[in-house]
Amino acid sequence: MRGQRISVRNVADLARAGFEIARQPVTKVDFEVHHAMARPGYLRELVTADADDAVFLETLCSATNGAGVVIGTRTRKPPDGTEPAEPAGDLQPAERPRQNARGWVFHQTTSPNPTFIYESAQTFEGLIAIDPAAREVYEWHGLAVRDLVREISDAASSLVDAPLVSLQCPAQLPTIVKTRNHDLRTRKEIAPPCASLAVRFAIALRDASAAARFELADRFRELCEKHGYSFWLADTRPGHRQGNWFEVCHADGEFSPLYRGDLRSRQRIGTCLPVTFVGPARIGSTNAIVSFLQRYPQVGVVGCAATTLSDVAFVHLQLAIHGVATERLNRILGKLLGESSTPARPDKLLRELFKRLGLPPDPDGPATAVQDPTGDYQTFAGPAFAYRPHQMPDCMAVWVSWEIARQHRGLAAPLDGLYHALAQVASPPEPVASAGDLATVEYLICRATEQSVIRGKAKLAVPRSVLRGFSSGGGEPPASRLCAALEEAWKAHVDRSGVDGVSELTVAWRESWLGHSAYS
User: Fold this and answer.
1) What would the pLDDT profile of 46-61 be if each residue is shown by its tens digit?
2) Residue 434: CB partners within 8 Å, gap ≥ 6?
3) Please, what is the angle between helix 139-154 and helix 210-227, to 10°?
4) What distance in Å separates the CA atoms of residue 505 and residue 507, rounded to the nearest whole number?
5) pTM of the full predicted structure?
């Protein structure tokens, strides 16, 4: 019976691929990867630039630990209707970055995988908190995140043969609910920190049976109980939107000695190396990448953001390499990427980089897979940035979502209006240079649908000091008043700008209060 289901699924995937190719015969996707210092306003400046090459079809943005990434895709339109021949697999050299004052920019092209289903009505979404109270990121945190991502990706590929469609770290934990003596009339909801040391993930289930969900949930529950993590599952009951969570197990703060036993692992990290892996979306690609990293005990993962855009997988990791200074890492990496013989394949480029850094692999580490799903992937690494601690205690999360008709300005249409609204409504007591300096885009995902509709969702880190202007009058919480005023100003500015096809603009301090069209 299982073999019959797989056969039917393969036929369906083949039919979908044929439809996609017939609908749009261009078989390449152009993309940009920006590795830059995390700072307010970077994304806005990038997407509002007055140039055609600044318009992205789909976008992923993430910022943490002082480093940020912006990924944008475009559909290639060759002038002569032909695709140039490109080297494949091991023969493709590593991309040399274009350097600017704030970071490195990579321009490349890859092939999509039209059979990859990255959207599904049946998803398994979870949230695992490693150390929610952490205000600094230590070396043991990097090892814990790395191993947790490996467990998540391995469960998706080997346990249920399903694609891992979303990965995010750090992430915001569920809303804190308090009552007095369990009296629901005294119920009070408190916004959690803007982001915590936690991994949020989503798996698109091919087998949506209750047995598959229980199998996944039991595996993650046992893992969390072993290491002292907290675990939540997305609430899938009718009427509960994305962002509502059901607590499965709560940690008591005691961590597994697997990570806390080594005194050296308690040192604070000093350097973050952003690395982005890109290739046709496939089941098991993230698992293969993190399995390779596990062979190097000195390499941890302190941040991640992964998704699929235009049927292309983008897996972004922030690596923390123990005992390697930022200047030395950038010097060795720059020389490596300047060589024409440097391969783009993830394991080959990283193996050579670690070798030059003097990091030997663990002979007892995970073995290399016989069939590597990342054999034709490209790797974009660097530059390394000095670690900057989270600013979470001084910031609150403001969630926004939008749905508009596809615009020639792309993401600039909703984002520019949002920042104008921020400047109008949320001015802090201390002056700032521009509206872009008021809030940091910590996470953003924006997609284009087949109906020529742009849908997106973002989480902004806004200084809590702006709440002072909304703290007086009425019983409504200041955060709710701020979000209501910001949403009204955003809609007014978009209307004045003449943006067509606006069907949704939403602002809320809780993710679950966003519109129905918000993406994960």
Assistant:
1) 877 655 555 677 899 9
2) 41, 423
3) 160
4) 7
5) 0.87
